Amino acid sequence: MDTDYTQVALEAALQRHRSRPGALLPILHDVQDALGHIPPATVGRIAQALNLSRAEVHGVITFYHHFRSHPAGRHVVRICQAEACQSMGAADLTAHAQQALGCKLHETTADGVFTLEPTYCLGLCAMSPSASVDDEVHARLTPAKFDRLIAATRRTDVAEQEAP
Amino acid sequence: MSFTVYVPRDSAALAVGADTIAGEIAFEAQRRSLDVNIVRNGSRGLMWLEPLVEVATPQGRIGFGPVGCDDVAALFERGFPAKCEHPLALGLVEELPYLKKQQRLTYARIGRTDPLSTSDYAAHEGWAGLRRALTLEPTAIVQQVVDSGLRGRGGAAFPTGIKWQTALKAVGAQKYIVCNADEGDSGSFADRLVMESDPFMLIEGMTIAGIAVGATQGYIYVRSEYPHSIRALEAAIDAARAANYLGPDILGSGKTFELEVRKGAGSYVCGEETALLDSLEGKRGIVRAKPPLPAITGLFGKPTVINNVVTLAAVPLILARGPASYRDFGQGRSRGTLAVQLAGNIRHGGLVELAFGVTLRQLLEEFGGGTASGRPIRAVQVGGPLGTYVPPQHWDTPLDYEAYAALGHVVGHGSIVVHDDTADLARLARYAMEFCAIESCGKCTPCRIGAVRGTEVMDKIIANQDRPKQIKLLRDLCDTMVNGSLCAMGGMTPFPVLSALNYYPEDFGAGAHHADHGNQQKTHV
Predict the structure, then answer these.
(1) Assuming Cys at both sites, which of A8, A161, B181, B274 could form a disulfide with B288, CB separation 3.0 to 4.6 Å?
(2) End-to-end C-alpha distance for chain B, whole angstroms
(3) ipTM of the complex in this document
(4) How many CB contacts within 8 angstroms connect chain A with chain B?
């Protein structure tokens, strides 16, 4: 990660939120949205800006499943593991996804394109099983639909990587 | 001739291709030189029909669904939107029995309006509750909510008016209204529907709450798993502020109310109200001991009303039509309507709003139409991951907070997750413990350690290791969690576990249970 870019993103997040009450979560969201993760090197500066200890900031980052301290793949695939999706074959879909992507839950594919994660409810419980790719949600999934979704995301990814 | 075609923008519709369908409709219409105006409405909550495309006609809206991306050209071939001869045509949407048999109060508008149009909202009884509230004294507004009999729809069912009274009487220069939109329970989507399909209703409800208790700032805490809800609310807040329904001088009344959306970060326990307040303050989502009550010492230590989305969304109508209009629905101490969410392995899943008193059997059979897989229903979990598996002998009990509590069950947030006869209740019990271990905030020992030990014990039971001893241990552990946990997370995780064990003992390799081992019920929340 480009150190300058990290600094710019971090200072922008601090500038935008630091005077708001309860600023830490909005700051962490902005940093992660900009950088893909919250680099451990930013913790000290965030703590200083909010007059918190580094331990407090670290504690918050590690408490929440959404925040990550290390880079993920370029696209995050989350498959719902909760009861409603279980009743419609989420376990089979997850097994298929792990095989199709060649990585387990909480892992990233060797080419760095996808990170596969569990999630617990996307609010699409009447159209299970469901999953999300980045911020987009998908429901009534089957292994075949999942494969099409991954193929479409790969095409987008290739286009994004080739773009100047 | 011009046509108005509705394609929902709710994430349920988006998740099955609504954006592509809207694009295809625009493309086909242009290709045929048809004048088609596409409105992105909310969802009606008839999820098995999504994407549900509707065409406005003088007789009412005609529905087509579920429309696949490949169906659009064929629809136009058969005369769409002027004719409805395609096999996907459903006739008049509001005549569909699933919708017609409901008693929609809170969800009366969803799917009918453009969720982001303040004027569409106003044309459908919107803002009437706020206008009424602006003519009343704070105590009178609170009294209307008390008189309606409304209780918290997030699961705890605490009387809303009493909460508001406490916050109104609390002394403080700054007070807050917090909306709990951390809808993490599997099977539930009632909050999401409000936020995406009728967000002004929530904004209006929170504004009324602010005027009632003297709070000038509100926060809506939305889970990060709901990006579409966050976008819909932010756009709605901007539109409401621009039209002077929010801000420093609401409709020229001199009253102030500001509203902000805050995004969660993937923690289930933040749905517990005190953990949510800690999270809003920028901390780890750790449960607080009560007292002090949030109504007295809440967000940033100030008096705070914290209510669930559906609770706040019920308020505008109570003010607009009067408390009796709401109280007249329901039975006993469960007044008004319940937003039932039919989910999981169900043929006709969706939102069913009915007065309290409907039975589970009616919901499963008359609305749900049995399982999606076509196999027999085996287990039904009511009230989310912390709710019990309600056995068939209780399916004729009316859904009512007290009637369910008497049997050791919970109505909770109104979600109903159906499993067919392939379900293994021991594995579902194990999942309940595992989920609690993953999501526990860690403050109290029964929850933090109990859930880990519970998962281990379930592994042994599933592996057929010393089952009688492990089952005894499981019951003992559940007893500790129920009676010793600080909040509902640890305190109610045993509900699904014990109900699975008691009503489906064969899945645990055990004989039928004895009456003295019934579910242990304790109110935690």
Answers:
(1) B274
(2) 57
(3) 0.97
(4) 157
